[in-house]
Amino acid sequence: MQLNWRLKAFTELSNYELYEILKLRSKVFVVEQNCVFQDMDDKDTKCLHLMGFADNALVAYSRLVPSGVSYKEVSIGRVVTDPDYRAKGLGKELMQLSIEKIEEAFGKHPIRIGAQLYLKDFYESFGFNINSAEYIEDGIPHIEMLR
């Protein structure tokens, strides 16, 4: 499956793109994972947004976070693929492209992520290593990982 990838700063997002981002994040992080949390956390305005569209539907997304916003290191967050498009390799493509784009935008530096524990092996396949004890965030086990 070939996606149309877009990378934009918050101020460059169209109303439609922003709506699609918030809709996909809500679909997965709130509804699918049954997790009530404040998704709009005042970080989006400081980040770059990597979006993968199939036709006009956003099916893959991550936000690229500058250093000093979430961690002292740069970070990749809100990594998500639409449940209807899973098992097609989009998550791997999204993560690889996220790493490439964050290095292009901010340079080759360590990347820290807060990962849901069940995705540990997935992130390890991209060179991330566990860098914290397990912790609970919004009722879900997480770990910090560093690449």
Task: Spell out the key features of this protein.
147 residues, alpha+beta, Aminopeptidase, eight-stranded mixed sheet, 3 helices, 8 strands, 27% helix, globular
How would you characterize the overall build of this protein?
This protein is α+β, with helices and mostly antiparallel strands. The chain has a single domain, classed as Aminopeptidase (3-Layer(aba) Sandwich), CATH 3.40.630. Helices cover 27% and strands 33% of the residues. It contains three helices and eight strands. Strands 1, 2, 3, 4, 5, 6, 7 and 8 form an eight-stranded mixed sheet that branches. The longest helix has 18 residues. The model has no long low-confidence stretch (mean pLDDT 93).
Topology order in helix (H) and strand (E) letters: EHEEEHEHEEE
The low-confidence parts are none
CATH superfamily caption: Gcn5-related N-acetyltransferase (GNAT)
Radius of gyration: 14 Å
Helical content band: 25-40%
